[in-house]
Amino acid sequence: NTGFQLLINAGQVNLTGITLNPTSASIVQGGTANLQVAYTPTNATNKNVTWTSSNPSVASVTASGTGTATVSANAVGTATITVTSQQGGFSRTCNVTVTPAVTITATDATAGEGGNPGVFRISTGSTSSNITVGYTVSGSASASDYTPSLSGSVTLTPASPAATITITPAHHSLFEGPGNITLTLQPGTGYNLGGSTTPTVS
């Protein structure tokens, strides 16, 4: 019968599980991270999910597509991001740790005659514990050309999340011409580096 027509309806493909990648993330304060759901089977019909955060003030989450989300690191601390499928109620989690973003700036980048010092400022937005931040010293000025003697590290605390380093020339001519000092922040435990890491006082 040439008028016969066969219609095949594949029907709904049920979701049997989900996984989440990554399952843990360390994000610098002010940064973001992306999360991705994988579906089983991959051709499941219903791929709708919901996202929640156990501590939005630390890490908030926003859906950004099918099975994808963006985590925003708002404050230092920890949070658990949970994704739950609409079909089957399958849940997976990602443990998020937000670490301090440490930066260094030259708040006074010019040192010279008349007791005019140069000033570096090492700081973070906040920290829940003491962190020791290391730095290296470079530049054309030698250690005998200025005070104080630089230790190579500062400690930031919850009560004092910033530290200043004041560079005073040992004699009037030190920072006239090419003399300069550059401090460069180093990676360390309990913090990440922010945008400004290598300022110079001259």
Form type: elongated
Major sheet: 5 strands, mixed
The N- and C-terminal alpha carbons lie at a distance of 94 Å
Q: Hey, roughly how much beta strand do the residues contain?
A: over 45%
**Rg to the nearest angstrom?**
27 Å
The strand line-up of the biggest sheet is: 12-14-10-9-16
Sequence of secondary-structure elements: EEEEEEEEEEEEEEEEE
Mean pLDDT: 89
Strand-pairing-aware structural class: mainly beta
Helix fraction, binned, reads under 10%
Oligomeric state of the chains present here: single chain
Tally of helical runs: 0
Low-pLDDT residue spans = none
Question: Can you offer a commentary on this structure?
Answer:
By secondary structure, the protein is mostly beta strands. 0% of the residues lie in helices and 50% in strands. The chain has no helices and 17 strands. The chain has a five-stranded mixed beta sheet with strand order 12-14-10-9-16, with no helix packed on it. β5 and β6 (68-73) form a beta hairpin.
What does the secondary structure layout of this molecule look like, with pairings?
Layout: E1 17-21, E2 24-28, E3 32-40, E4 49-53, E5 59-65, E6 68-73, E7 77-85, E8 91-99, E9 101-108, E10 118-124, E11 131-138, E12 146-147, E13 153-156, E14 162-169, E15 181-185, E16 192-193, E17 200-201
Parallel strand pairs: 2-8, 9-16
Antiparallel strand pairs: 1-3, 3-6, 4-7, 5-6, 7-8, 9-10, 10-14, 11-13, 11-15, 12-14, 15-17
